[in-house]
Each structure stands twice: as structure tokens, then as C-alpha cells.
């Protein structure tokens, strides 16, 4: 595409304000400058100025320490990826860091911002495969390009608050997530029988030594610590006056059912999405998970999990949305269709909210 008439890159500094005004008022102008940003052979400084003008955004973070040529190529590739996105759904700010090796996910990207890291190895080929999946051919993101997936995933995050994404992810169409807050609340809601049985088994095994039921708070406090061994629970039972004075720690330890399902359920929740496997332990169709970045205990629908578009989708409600958004707007039609088949209700929700750009 030829450059606009009368334009020279050396004039860009003096024309930025004028161009931004023109682009904000005229979609045709904006598209023209998007094309220039994608195709022009130019230096990084100019490319970033073009990017900000055409995509209506700002670039955060200093980048003096990075390889300017790679970064220039990166923004050129990024500009191409964003071609289909409507203006009002583009992020308002990009904070992008370069890291050694491959690119990776780097933030929640809330408030219309994208925060991400790109790997210097991604540039210039952008051929690395996405690693957030099993890999499993049944998953929509099984065979996608890492760079595209990362960019669209982060855009998904940047949009989620403004579109009210919780109305999707807290519905059965979007994973059926529930944010219980604390572990105790989550256990009481869906795993109450396991919790009660665990305490009863200890009391029964202690027989004569027990003076009262094991308080649920003691069990829950112990379960909250992923590294805690049985000794920590033993200490709490002894110091909590559950057993008669003089009862030895080894007696209490012998009463703890180490192979109880409750322990397996909570360990699974701590271990996170990449350890859930094909059929995670569930109760009443609910699976427990720790939303690690916020320290919240959540549950989701086991039935919906089977259709997951990637393993990483089940990291949290927020990642569920970002990963699904990544399928719905992937440049490959096969990926978009696989996402729509996996969660048709969620696809309809995105469509209703104007969040599907490729047709
Ligand atoms: Zn994410």
C-alpha cells in the first residue's frame, strides 16, 4: 500500500497530533494508517508512533534495553494481528516487555490495558506453538501459534471487566464457576460430607482419647497450606483440646486418614489446572480449585470441563474467559469453529456483546 500523499516519515513528529485527530474522526483514515504501520519499512520509533496513531492506544514501559530491531518486527506483526478488531475493542494501552526465550503470559491486563511479555525467540518467525494445552487434539487451542494466542488472550483480559465477563463465567454456559471466597465456604457448599467424614474418621480412630469432635476450622486451616504434612494437623488437634491431655502426637497421627478423598480433593485444587487430568475428582458435578493469583477458592462444573479449549482455561474464571476469547477470534477458522462447538452458549454470549470480529 502506498504511503498517503505528501507524507514523509521525517515529518511524523510534527504531524502526530494532526494524524491522531484525523484518525479519531475518520475510520477510513485510521485504516489507512493501520496499513502503513503494518507494511512500512521503518525504524522502531516511527513504528510505535504509527501504532499509537492507527490503533488509538499508547505504549507503556521503557524499552531502551531491548533489541530495537526485534521490537520493531514485533510491533509490525502485532499490527497485522489487530487488523480485524473494531476500534472500540482495542486496548487503550500496551505494556510489553521482552524476555529471553519464548513468550509468556504476564498479567490480568485489566482496565483496558494489555500487559504481556514476548520472547526474543518469537521474533522474527513467530512460529512457536502455544503451550497452554495438553497438547490434546480435542482442544480448540491444540495447534495454534503462541504469538497470536498470547496477544488475543491478553486482549480478552483487557476487555473482561468492561463487558461484565462474570455474567458469562458464573453461568453454566461459561464453565459454571462460583467464587466461594474461603476454603471453608467452598467445602461447606459442595464437599460437606467429605469434610464431616474426615473429622468423624479421626474421632472414631482416636476412640477413648477424643473428648470432642475435630473442629472443622482446624481441618480447614490445615488444608489451606499446600505443603502442610500431617504433623501440622496433629499439633492443631492436640493444642486445640480435641483429645485428652497426655495423648501422644503419634496416637493422633495414626488416626488421620491420609488417603481420604477430602485430602485428594484439596490437593487437586492446590495443584492447579495442568494437573486436573481428564476426569478430576468431583462431588455433585463440582470441582474445587484454588484461584491462586487472588487466593480465592472456586468451584466449576465438571461437565463443562470436558469441552475445555485448553488446560490453561481452567486456571481460573478469568483465564476461562481469556482462553475462550482466544478461540473465538483466532485467525484459523478451524480454531474458531472448535471453540464455538465446545461452548456454544459462551460463543453466543460473545457475539451478543460484540466480541467476535472474524466471520
Ligand atoms: Zn491470562
Describe the structure.
The protein has about 350 residues and is α/β, with parallel strands linked by helices. It has a domain at about 190-265. Helix content is about 45%, strand content about 10%. It is built from 16 helices and seven strands. It has helices at about 10-25, 25-40, 45-55, 70-80, 145-160, 165-170, 185-190, 190-205, 215-225, 230-240, 250-255, 260-270, 300-305, 315-330, 335-340, 345-350; strands at about 60, 95-100, 105, 115-120, 180, 285-290, 295-300. The strands form two sheets. A four-stranded mixed sheet has the order 1-2-4-3. Strand 3 (about 105) and strand 4 form a beta hairpin. Helix 1 crosses helix 2 (about 25-40). The longest helix has 15 residues, at about 145-160. It starts with 11 loop residues before the first helix and ends in a 7-residue tail after the last helix. The mean pLDDT is about 90. The structure holds zinc ion. Zinc ion binds next to helix 5 and helix 14. Zinc ion binds near residues 157, 319 and 322.
What Rg, in angstroms, do the CA atoms define? 26 Å
User: Biggest sheet, open or closed, and with what strands and sense?
Assistant: 4 strands, mixed
The succession of helices and strands, N to C, reads HHHEHEEEHHEHHHHHHEEHHHH
Report low-confidence residues grouped into runs of 5 or more: none
Distinct ligands, ions and cofactors found in the model: zinc ion
Question: What is the overall shape?
Answer: elongated
Approximate helicity band: 40-55%
Count of DSSP strands: 7
Q: What's the number of helices?
A: 16
| Oligomeric composition of the shown chains | single chain
Strand order, main sheet: write it out: 1-2-4-3
Mean pLDDT equals 89
- Euclidean distance between termini CA atoms: 24 Å
SSE-based structural type: alpha/beta
Which percent band covers the strand fraction? 5-15%
Amino acid at each position: 500500500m502506498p504511503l498517503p500523499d505528501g507524507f514523509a516519515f521525517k515529518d511524523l513528529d510534527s504531524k502526530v497530533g494532526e494524524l491522531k485527530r484525523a484518525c479519531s474522526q475518520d475510520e477510513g483514515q485510521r485504516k489507512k494508517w493501520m496499513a502503513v504501520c503494518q507494511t512500512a519499512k521503518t525504524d522502531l520509533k516511527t513504528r510505535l508512533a504509527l501504532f499509537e496513531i492507527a490503533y488509538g492506544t499508547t505504549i507503556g514501559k521503557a524499552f531502551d534495553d531491548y533489541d530495537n530491531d526485534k521490537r520493531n518486527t514485533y510491533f509490525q506483526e502485532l499490527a497485522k494481528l489487530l487488523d480485524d478488531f473494531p476500534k472500540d475493542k482495542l486496548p487503550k494501552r500496551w505494556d510489553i516487555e521482552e524476555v529471553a526465550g519464548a513468550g509468556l503470559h504476564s498479567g490480568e491486563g485489566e482496565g483496558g490495558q494489555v500487559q504481556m511479555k514476548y520472547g526474543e525467540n518469537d521474533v522474527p518467525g513467530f512460529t512457536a506453538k502455544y503451550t497452554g494445552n495438553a497438547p490434546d487434539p480435542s482442544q480448540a487451542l491444540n495447534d495454534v501459534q503462541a504469538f497470536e494466542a498470547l496477544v488475543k488472550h491478553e486482549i480478552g483480559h483487557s476487555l473482561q471487566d468492561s463487558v461484565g465477563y462474570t455474567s458469562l463465567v458464573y453461568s453454566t454456559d461459561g464453565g459454571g464457576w462460583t467464587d466461594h471466597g474461603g476454603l471453608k465456604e467452598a467445602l461447606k457448599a459442595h464437599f460437606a460430607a467429605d469434610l464431616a467424614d474426615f473429622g468423624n474418621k479421626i474421632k472414631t480412630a482416636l476412640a477413648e482419647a477424643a473428648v470432642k469432635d475435630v473442629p472443622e476450622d482446624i481441618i480447614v486451616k490445615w488444608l489451606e497450606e499446600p505443603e502442610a504434612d500431617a504433623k501440622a494437623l496433629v499439633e492443631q488437634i492436640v493444642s486445640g483440646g480435641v483429645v485428652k491431655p497426655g495423648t501422644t502426637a503419634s496416637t493422633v497421627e495414626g488416626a488421620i486418614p491420609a488417603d481420604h478423598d477430602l485430602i485428594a480433593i484439596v490437593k487437586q485444587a492446590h495443584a492447579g489446572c495442568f494437573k486436573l487430568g481428564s476426569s478430576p475428582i468431583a462431588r455433585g458435578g463440582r470441582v474445587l480449585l484454588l484461584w491462586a493469583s487472588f487466593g480465592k477458592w472456586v468451584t466449576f462444573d465438571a461437565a463443562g470441563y470436558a469441552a475445555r479449549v485448553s488446560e490453561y482455561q481452567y486456571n481460573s474464571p478469568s483465564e476461562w474467559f481469556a482462553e475462550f476469547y482466544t478461540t473465538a477470534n483466532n485467525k484459523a477458522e478451524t480454531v474458531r469453529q472448535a471453540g464455538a462447538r465446545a461452548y456454544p452458549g459462551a460463543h453466543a454470549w460473545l457475539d451478543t456483546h460484540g466480541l467476535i470480529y472474524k466471520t
